[in-house]
């Protein structure tokens, strides 16, 4: 069966510090991968998606970046965090466009 | 303009009540999903549907493609159903509603 891992679960970082969140999927190959952010009381905002290794599409201009160094690994990064980067970050995968999405447990990021 | 609109935003019900959450959308879609977000933040997929009706236990999801409307029904609601329910649709990319926060009181 397929599983999706995200870490860390919670993170408190000072403004200006770097960020690296990792997401890995097990039990499937060639997944479509997504990074979402959910601000308090808001809906899910798509940040990045990837249909293959090294293929990253960005939906929202920001100081975040994403990379997919391996088929089942998706990394969200920042060189310098802003206060506005605080939120709940979710990684998700689908077997194909429009198919059922499977979400990771999420990372709650607080930037102070 | 939000492509996906949900109503109500918040809903409180007594245990045992029949609950309906509505989702209206403005784009032609390939599929519509209902998601459940638990208080801890984790999200699980409840249904994916492109036509008609699906049932899983006490949950029923319907969709009317012509009217661009879907409903999620919960029969015999229970406190463990308390969660945020999110409507999501796919048309070249995923769009999400802002969610309906449901609280079921014992």
Topology:
The complex is a heterodimer of chains A (112) and B (106).
Chain A: E1 3-7, E2 10-13, E3 19-26, E4 32-38, E5 44-52, E6 55-58, E7 64-70, E8 73-78, E9 87-94, E10 102-103, E11 107-111
Parallel strand pairs in A: 2-11
Antiparallel strand pairs in A: 1-3, 3-8, 4-5, 4-9, 5-6, 7-8, 9-10, 9-11
Chain B: E1 4-7, E2 10-14, E3 19-25, E4 31-37, E5 43-49, E6 52-56, E7 59-64, E8 69-74, E9 83-90, E10 94-96, E11 100-105
Parallel strand pairs in B: 2-11
Antiparallel strand pairs in B: 1-3, 3-8, 4-5, 4-9, 6-7, 7-8, 9-10, 9-11
Features:
A: 112 residues; four-stranded antiparallel beta sheet; 11 strands; 58% strand; globular; B: 106 residues; six-stranded mixed beta sheet; five-stranded antiparallel beta sheet
Describe this structure in words.
- The complex is a heterodimer of chains A (112) and B (106).
- Chain A has no helices and eleven strands.
- With 112 residues, chain A is mainly beta.
- In chain A, 34% of the residues are buried.
- By secondary structure, chain B is mainly β.
- In chain B, 0% of the residues lie in helices and 60% in strands.
- Chain B has no helices and eleven strands.
- In chain B, strands 2, 4, 5, 9, 10 and 11 form a six-stranded mixed beta sheet that branches.
- The termini of chain B are far apart.
- At the A-B interface, strand 5, strand 9 and strand 10 of A face strand 4, strand 5 and strand 9 of B.
């Amino acid at each position: 069966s397929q599983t999706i891992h995200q870490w860390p679960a919670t993170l408190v970082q000072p403004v200006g510090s770097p960020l690296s969140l990792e997401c890995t999927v097990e039990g499937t190959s060639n997944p479509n991968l997504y990074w979402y952010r959910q601000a308090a009381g808001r809906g899910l905002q798509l940040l990045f998606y990837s249909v293959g290794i090294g293929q990253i599409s960005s939906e929202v201009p920001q100081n975040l970046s994403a990379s997919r160094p391996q088929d089942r690994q998706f990394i969200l990064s920042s060189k310098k965090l802003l206060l506005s980067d605080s939120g709940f970050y979710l990684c998700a995968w689908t077997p194909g466009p429009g198919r059922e999405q499977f979400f990771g447990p999420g990372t709650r990021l607080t930037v102070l | 303009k939000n492509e996906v609109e949900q109503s109500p935003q918040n809903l409180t019900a007594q245990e045992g009540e029949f609950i309906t959450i509505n989702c209206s959308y403005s784009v032609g879609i390939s599929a519509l999903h209902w998601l459940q977000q638990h208080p801890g933040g984790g999200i699980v997929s409840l249904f994916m549907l492109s036509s008609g009706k699906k049932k899983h236990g006490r949950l029923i999801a319907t969709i009317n493609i012509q009217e661009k409307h879907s409903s999620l029904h919960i029969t015999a609601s229970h406190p463990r159903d308390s969660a945020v329910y999110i409507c999501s649709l796919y048309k070249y990319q995923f769009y999400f509603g802002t969610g309906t926060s449901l609280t079921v009181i014992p």
